[in-house]
Amino acid sequence: MSKFVSPLRRFGLIWLGIAAFAATGCTDSRGGEIPYDVSNFGPPDKPVTNGPGANYRIAPMDTLTVRVFGMPDLTGEYQVDLLGTLSMPLIGDVAATDLTPAELDQVLTKKYGEKYLENPDVSVGVKESAGRIVTVDGAVKKGGAFPAPGPLTLMQAVALAGGADAETANMHRVAIFRTVNGQRQAAAFDLLSIQHGESPDPPVYSGDIVIVDGSRIKATQKKFFQTFPLFAIFRPF
């Protein structure tokens, strides 16, 4: 039985910093704490692409195959959310980021064995690495995770999500979240200026998260963003 948790379902829990981006300023202008015109917005850390080998470290948005012997209701495909959390039946959320499949196997075995199963037999595999996707959400028509085998531009990434929502999007504020030197960093861009040829169209890489600001961002998502530790912000010019 498939237990795949779609990116859209998980986005209610994983908006990583939008309060700093969208909580200040007007809804149709630039603003917020994430800077524009950054000087060091380079490529992200190279994603680990060695597949489900013994040394592979699980990353946010990876799709995992979890098998619990004799328990078809627990067996299936599950997606790690952007906070690195795996949501499992009965035991709830489990921290998965930076664990190997074998280590996560041990964690799940222990948790299921504590209350629910006697001597559970659990196996964990990596079906798909998130290093090959770009996540686009916010005020777009169809947010989610999209294949990105090579670099894209910001406009192309937004187009993958069906484009910005004409009624709710703030085209002056689009953020890219990226991991550089092991830290989550962010920079803001004015999509209208890019469309008009006034600003360059920046590259978007596998593993990036693109958020389009808008007037209908849920209060719960803003509140969650306020708790996200934005360790470093790209320096402006």
From TrEMBL:
Database matches in InterPro entries: Poly_export, Poly_export_N, SLBB_dom
Domain Polysaccharide export protein N-terminal, residue spans: 53-126
Start and end residues of each SLBB domain: 134-212
Membrane topology: Multi-pass membrane protein
Signal peptide (UniProt feature, chain positions): 1-22
Keyword Amino-acid biosynthesis on entry: no
Main subcellular location: membrane
Name listed for the protein in its UniProt record: Polysaccharide export protein
